[in-house]
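2024-03-11 09:14:02 INFO worker-7 job=invfold-0412 stage=load source=structure_tokens
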């Protein structure tokens, strides 16, 4: 075959081959299959505040609705005399320190405190009797258990033993008793603590204190001191 005929044959066959290729694929195009990408599941651990460690703080409180019923069992014909009720109240302040352990959201540990102030009251009768009581100071050892409802917010309860120094006076028409005594009792309370910074926090507390009965001889008869009161306080804690 001559060279001119070969070129002519190639020129005619190329378009036919192209058309045949398109025809073979017409209506049968398949898009490539892309597998979906599954994002990994990341579990986020809950954020828990750091409450563990030693701390120290200061408090300022106000005692109210204190009760100390004064009854005098007089020697002689007077017999039992009810002088009335001392309603203890007043401002108090103190210092405290403790250590806390933490397990998840639970926080617990001991606390020791010392408070002094002006928790007192007095009374007088029309027939010449009078009495007064003053809580000079209170030393307490508590166990505290709390739950961190938020990383920076702790709600807790407390219970413990306390020892108070009390000034007590009873005056009768014939004698005067002016004495001090120490009396052990118990304290129970509830509180909330809010972190202001990583190391400093603000507290608000309610506590009930009860110191039982102390029998006292006035010289004219026997009386029983029964100091107890409610106390609300605010404070600042500093964690080490």
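2024-03-11 09:14:09 INFO worker-7 stage=emit residues=240
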């Amino acid at each position: 075959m001559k060279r001119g005929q070969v070129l002519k044959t190639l020129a005619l066959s190329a378009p036919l081959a192209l058309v045949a290729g398109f025809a073979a694929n017409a209506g049968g195009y398949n898009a490539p299959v892309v597998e979906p990408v599954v994002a990994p599941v990341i579990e986020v651990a809950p954020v828990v505040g750091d409450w563990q460690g030693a701390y120290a703080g200061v408090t300022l409180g106000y005692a109210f609705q204190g009760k100390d019923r004064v009854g005098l069992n007089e020697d002689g014909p007077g017999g039992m005399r009810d002088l009335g009720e001392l309603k203890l109240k007043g401002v108090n302040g103190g210092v405290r320190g403790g250590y806390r352990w933490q397990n998840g959201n639970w926080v617990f540990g001991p606390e020791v405190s010392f408070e002094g102030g002006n928790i007192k009251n007095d009374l007088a009768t029309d027939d010449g009797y009078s009495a007064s009581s003053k809580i000079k100071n209170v030393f307490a050892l508590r166990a505290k258990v709390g739950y961190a409802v938020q990383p920076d917010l702790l709600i807790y309860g407390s219970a413990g033993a306390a020892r108070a120094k009390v000034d007590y006076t009873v005056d009768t028409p014939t004698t005067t008793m002016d004495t001090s005594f120490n009396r052990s009792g118990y304290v129970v309370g509830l509180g909330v603590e809010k972190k202001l910074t990583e190391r400093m926090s603000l507290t608000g507390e309610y506590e009930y204190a009860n110191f039982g009965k102390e029998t006292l001889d006035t010289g004219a008869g026997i009386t029983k001191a029964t100091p107890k009161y409610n106390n609300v306080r605010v404070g600042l804690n500093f964690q080490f």
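2024-03-11 09:14:09 INFO worker-7 stage=report msg="The first helix runs from residue 3 to 25."
2024-03-11 09:14:10 INFO worker-7 job finished
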